Amino acid sequence: MTVIDVHTHVFPRLSRDEGRVLADRGEPWLRVGRGGTGTMMCGDEEFRPVGEALWDPARRLADMDAAGVDVQAVSSTPLMFGYAAEPSRAADWCDLVNERILAFCAGAPDRLLPLCQVPLQDPALACEVATRAAAAGHRGVHIGNHVGDRNLDDEGITAFLAHCARIGLPVLVHPWDMLGADRMRGHMLPWLVGMPAETQLSILGLMLSGAFERLPRSLRLCFCHGGGSFAFLLGRADNAWRRRDLVRASSPRPPSEYVDRFHVDSAVFDPRALRLLVDVMGVERVMLGTDYPFPLGEEEPGAAIRACPGLGDADRARLLGGNAEAFFARPAPVPAGAGAAVAGTAP
């Protein structure tokens, strides 16, 4: 049984000068200390203390061996997205970050799958960066769930998603820059409350706006953190769609009929919650995700999957690795001239 963790993060060793590729103030960089300690920085401000597994592939591989994880999909830390920057600077920054992620994974290409990042504030430029990254060896793209007040159903962002479908690049969506932060002070409430809410917002936005009707079915899309609160509240959304024309104005089908258009990771931490998630999504659309190496991640990778009631051995094998193998499989070459449309029809 192959164990594949689709939700892990990296912050390559980037100096402050390199961070200034993105911004002159508040630039993201990594301050590395002694004894395997470090700090993610925003200019002069300390953002979060971190350990060497975030930048040292040898330590990461040792942790994977100890935890029984065969493969990780490696994505940048959301602090690095750079969506507020001027697009051309953000593109240069993404090229630099993507190059470092490739280098991080290069020593164990069969175990570390690199995911690129893109300047999503400029969807056309994001398409260019994603195409370069895919050609260089990246196996997917990691994006935030919104850019300012533009959600994933924004016309430009859906065009980018359609481009990813066309070039066969899977998309991992991570919540970030959480709404209501001014009311969630302390106790890590932005992570505990804001992240699930952001993810729920993104999924329902794609459904109710009709975006899934416009996006190609070949798009491979995965939402982190178990899809947030989506599975638990799907019945509420379906009920609203049936009862109010305002809810269904742009969506010809109820939300529950779009669950076959995306995947979620398993980072819900409770076997009972995971059972509901599998019941809602289907066993073929849930993949192991831990949020490694951050402290709110699943400490024992796959523990909730192994303890989930009602799953047989074959189902557990799919959640632990089989679904991810299919999700990240390299697509067959596209014939020249095929797939010219960016968005507009869903095959």
From TrEMBL:
Occurrences of domain Amidohydrolase-related (ranges): 4-328
A biological process from GO: secondary metabolic process
Annotated InterPro entries: ACMSD, Amidohydro-rel, Metal_Hydrolase
Origin: domain of life: Bacteria
Molecular function GO labels: aminocarboxymuconate-semialdehyde decarboxylase activity; hydrolase activity; metal ion binding
Protein name as it appears in the record: 2-amino-3-carboxymuconate-6-semialdehyde decarboxylase
Assigned protein family: Belongs to the metallo-dependent hydrolases superfamily. ACMSD family.
Keywords annotated in UniProt: Decarboxylase, Lyase, Metal-binding, Zinc
Subunit text: Monomer.
This protein's GO CC annotations: cytosol
SUPFAM superfamilies membership: Metallo-dependent hydrolases
Assigned EC number: 4.1.1.45
Pathway recorded for this protein: Secondary metabolite metabolism; quinolate metabolism
Species this protein is from: Actinomadura hallensis
